[in-house]
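hi!! sorry for the late reply, been swamped w classes. u asked for the two structures so here they r. pasted raw, havent cleaned anything up. first the sequence of the first protein and right below it the tokens
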Amino acid sequence: MMQAMSQKRPFAAFRRLQWKLTFSYTLVTVGTLLVVELLVGGLLYFLFFSNIFTSIVQDSMQNSLEDQARTFLEQTPPDIDGLRIWADSLVETTTELSITGGISEKTKLQFGNLSIETDERQQLYFMDADLVVLAQVPGPVKTAVLNHPFDTASVPNSAQLLQNALQNPPDTDTLFMRHDDGTFVITAPIVGSKGDVLGVMLLTYALPIFEASTILPILQAVLFTLIPFTIGVGFVGTIFGFLTARGLAQRLQRMSQTADAWSQGDFSVAAHDASGDELGQLNRSLNRMAEQLQNLLQTRQELATLEERNRLARELHDTVKQHIFATVMQLGAAQALADSDPSATRTHLAEAEQLARQAQQELTGLIQELRPAALAGKGLAEALHDYATDWSRRTLIAANVAVQGERPLPLPIEQALFRIAQEALANVARHSQAGKVEIGLTWQETAVSLTIQDNGQGFELAANEQTGMGLQNMAERAAEVNGRLDVQSKPGAGTAITVTIPQT
């Protein structure tokens, strides 16, 4: 099992948010690259293997060349020389610098927005209605071509295309064709202003040859370059993803550290993030929440202090004040009988002395409740034993303290358990009419528990009103140290209170 855990540990780091974001960034980068490559490949396939490019060329011929050619052919007789001069002006020769440093001249046929590099396979012919060649761009290889009927055998399938163009109206859907060698044949009619067909234009244009013998090597080259290119892009994407995710992970880590400090009660630590994104807004919201929690804790402390003051006021009113009032009455009676009945006077003075002692005992008990100094210099077990002994002497209720497995405890837990014991014993003295109390303090491996059980009259938990506030106070004290308070009681069967506080 330990070996299996050691095998998993090297991959545990990759479960962190930073690596998850990094891998997602890499996946998105590579996926985007593949999608773009597929789209570009599909677009190129669509352009080269569909009629879209041919249709664009034909529309450009119709829109850019037909109007000008019409002006020459509608004249009587047709201005053939002007047509040839204008046709020659469509050809431009440019000088270009090659990659190797050489200089080369290129001849391009330009009309509309198109620029077509010319060679022996790319020619533009202007013919009349009888298919006699009137002009050829670039200039004819053999001058005998001009003024002679067009040789349809030199351009396969051109005869049918020319007949389609000469129809009135022309069949515009069958004016172009693509040959297996990658050559396009495109025709466009020259329609006169009266609607009659004056002639026809024919363009032979060669795109790169895309046959099985040439496509397979190209695909192989693309695949061999695509794989390393994709790996390289993925590697670069991983680096950028790691750097991008690192900042985000650090911001989240700072938030986690701040939350840990708050969970330990240290609200002096604030989440600092001035960013305007969602994480920055979350940090500011958490800071506001921490401030509200501080205010809430302060309010609870103030309420607890006020509640303690009210409880002390009730205790002083119900005990000490009554004893002092009775003492004053006894002293007044003694003063009135001092001259006439010395014996009765001594009796009243003795009663006053007894009442004063009771008031002193009550004040001593209240002072001990207020001052956790009972724990000073002692452990919880010794402090409980001393307090139970004094409480038993004052209340005349037998109390027994049993301790098991005593170990040191943090001061907040000792104070909480001591206060709960004080509150529980006070409730026993006031309400239970018990004759005996058993106090048990037990340390276990993972918890410490305090049990206070009396043999008094008990009560119904659901209908409890008289001691409800005391039980609530004890439950709140236990909760402050992550403890739990359990109460068991039935009428006539006594009451058992158990406090359990976990230990780490």
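now the second protein. again sequence first, tokens right under
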Amino acid sequence: MNNVNEIIKGPILTEKSYQLMSASVYSFKVSPKTNRSETKKAVEYIFNVKVDKVNIFTVPKKEKKLGKSKGFTTKYKKALVKLKPGYTINLFDEESPQVDNFNQNSENNNETMAKIEQKKAELDVKNQEIAQKLAKKHEKASENLTTEKIEKTAENQDKGDAN
């Protein structure tokens, strides 16, 4: 594996992994093609720590039932990484980048909502203009029909009088 980001997929956060963190043992989901030495180098590079020991094992797929249907969870490779004394990995920053992204997204959402409202207002104006034009056309058409009916009835009356 060439890319360090492809080796470590992400941390595994369970009750057991939280207990192991107090003993400087961290659990990660890793690529199925990786080995101990690659995992050790990747953790040292990404988190800037010294690794004491790495245990890797494959977690088998498990059968899960949802109603009558059966399915399986995907199997994956798990690495338990023990750090040398004095080193820790801070998986939980005080300022979470997700919160910052959420705030940026909310600002972007406000901008997009404003644009949407502006577009709605423009469409409402256009719809009103179209409705007015249609009303004028309808009035003209009804006037033309009434004048044509009057002319036809007048012609029919003239024909009836002539007979």
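hope this helps!! also noticed smth abt the second:
The longest strand covers residues 51-59.
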